[in-house]
Amino acid sequence: MAQLKYYYDLMSQPSRAVYIFLKANKIPFQDKPVALRKGEHFSEDFKKLNPMSKVPFVDDNGFILTESVAILKYLCSKYKVKDHWYPQSDVKKVARVDEYLNWQHTNTRLNAALVFQHLLILPKMTGKGVNENQLNKFKKGVKETVSSLDRYYLNGKPYLCGDDISIADILGACELMQLRAVHEEHLYTENPTVLAWMGRVREKLNPEFDSAHKFIERTRDVYPHIKANL
């Protein structure tokens, strides 16, 4: 049987989530790193595999699957991982996970990603300063997201969707960790509930969690001026 091929860049939040899941569950895969910063995802060879020109994606013996949520669900089903990751045996538990997975696209993912982009990616691409109005809009969005994580999703539970970790927790934590690269982690660390949850997720997933986030810590060290200029 051909081994699963995984195409990713660890600077991408969803890429890290799938990478950590694969490692944590000891699912064998062929490493296929893609350097987004070099534009490798726009090459003709890449587009032949994935016309979307995005990561992550998997190639499972010719079956190409994009989108991190779809990939994680597929891996849960194919490799029959422990039920807590995506508890399909319980209709209500799996509905809770799906609830977060659908909500996160325009909340955790959108807001944290755009804070990162407005502080680092867009200024580098355009040569212009930070658009403070847009940045403040998305920082406010992160704060509202963190409040929802605290009051609705966690709400006295150790993990977003219940008593054990799920794919929702990996995705959520990876999105918030992106804020560390631009010195904006205070947007979630100031909330004790969310900070404690992040700690539990990290502890549960280490050493894979820290290993996958080395690029984030490196970026943080390379761009200390981002914090100084705010």
Automatic annotation (TrEMBL):
Keyword Transferase found: yes
Location in or out of the cell: Cytoplasm
GO cellular component: cytoplasm
Molecular function (Gene Ontology), one example: glutathione transferase activity
GO biological process, one term: glutathione metabolic process
Keywords: Cytoplasm, Transferase
Catalytic activity: RX + glutathione = an S-substituted glutathione + a halide anion + H(+)
Domain GST N-terminal positions: 2-83
Segment forming the signal sequence: none
Domain GST C-terminal: start-end pairs: 90-225
Keyword Transmembrane helix appears in the UniProt entry: no
UniProt record similarity statement: Belongs to the GST superfamily. Theta family.
Protein name: Glutathione transferase
Organism: Lottia gigantea
